[in-house]
Amino acid sequence: MVDSFLTTAPLDPGSILDRLGTPADGALLLFAGTVRDTNEGRRVEGMRYDAYGAMAERVLREIADSAAGRWPVTDLVVAHRTGELRIGEISVVVGVAAPHRNEAFEAGRFVMEEIKSRLPIWKQEHYAEGSAWLDGRIPPVPEATHE
Which domain holds residue 79? Predict the structure, then answer.
């Protein structure tokens, strides 16, 4: 099973972990990315994620399918949050089930690296003195959504 989705709702890694695994699997990998309180020496108070919903969901699915095609995984679930997040909230979850740990780790790392380089999601950090879009990438207006 391969699944991927965007959501404005809080992500629950436990529910994703519950969806993974067969009797043939010796590895269940769960990665959760969270909003941290500092970045490049600046104190972060929160984060906003904007996305082109349909396009981002398509790319997220392509990434998940590509990982499932490259490694012998039995289950792979990828979820990414959009909207306003507080410090410590989970922004992305990757779950992988595979017969062996090496394949699970490799597939999970591949998914995260592809998300960072390909997924059309824009990140805006909030600071006490204002906000900044990361990597100089500002979302196009008005098509960017929080869905």
Answer: 2-136
